[in-house]
Design a protein that fits this description.
Strand 5, helix 3 and strand 6 form a beta-alpha-beta unit. The chain is 24% helix and 34% strand. The chain is an alpha/beta fold and 178 residues long. The radius of gyration is 16 Å and the shape is globular. The structure holds guanosine-5'-monophosphate and magnesium ion (MG). The site of guanosine-5'-monophosphate has 20 residues, from strand 5, helix 3 and strand 8. Guanosine-5'-monophosphate binds next to strand 5, helix 3 and strand 8.
């Protein structure tokens, strides 16, 4: 276990759940009725699980795939280098793709994922992210759907980790080191 760490709650489980439902409704209103979802691991797994069930509620059929990219390692700051750790299972050529990620910070991760899928011939590529840190963007990339804009603090919970801890927190909070 990690010591001398406090988590200050930013978004409660209830608030997250309401926002995920709103996002699913917006996506369902605007998007073709069948989507191939690409969840970026590991951080997006809980958001993706909740979002696809909400999409099902709004009548969207999905197919699910995952891509593991890494830019952080165990650090609190992005290295800027995006590494492909584990590839997808299915081909994306000709498909409408929705990338799901936990948080958009510098944009390096999402940019790399979008370029990869476009290079492989995806028909369209859009993104939904739960969080974004608007002041930190370095790449010309944006998500069509964003849950919350967060302050420039390191956040954990609801899939987001520090050293692979705290992904299981049902809420999102700021990591404070005493
Ligand atoms: P980017 O490539 O946009 O700089 O960063 C995106 C990735 O960095 C996210 O998918 C996430 O894994 C990680 N990341 C960025 N900011 C935070 C943060 O505040 N907390 C955590 N736990 N991960 C973050
Ligand atoms: Mg990530």
């Amino acid at each position: 276990m990690l010591t001398n760490i406090r988590i200050e709650e930013l978004y409660s489980a209830k608030l997250i759940s309401e926002r995920v439902d709103e996002l699913a409704k917006e996506i369902a209103d605007e998007w073709p009725k069948e989507i191939t979802i690409v969840g970026l691991l590991r951080g997006s797994f809980i958001f993706a699980a909740d979002l696809v069930r909400a999409l099902n509620h709004y009548g969207v059929a999905i197919r699910m795939d995952f891509l593991t990219l890494s830019s952080y390692g165990n650090a609190l700051k992005s290295s800027g280098q995006v590494e492909l750790k584990q590839d997808m299972q299915d081909a994306v050529a000709g498909k409408d793709i929705l990338i799901i990620d936990d948080i958009l910070e510098t944009g390096n991760t999402l940019h790399a994922a979008m370029e990869l899928l476009k290079a492989r011939g995806a028909k369209s590529v859009k993104a939904a992210v739960l969080l974004e840190k608007p002041d930190k963007l370095e790449k010309a990339v944006s998500a069509s759907w964003v849950g919350f804009s967060v302050p420039d603090k390191f956040v954990v919970g609801y899939g987001l980790d520090y050293k692979n801890y705290y992904r299981d927190l049902p809420y999102i909070g700021v990591l404070c080191q005493d």
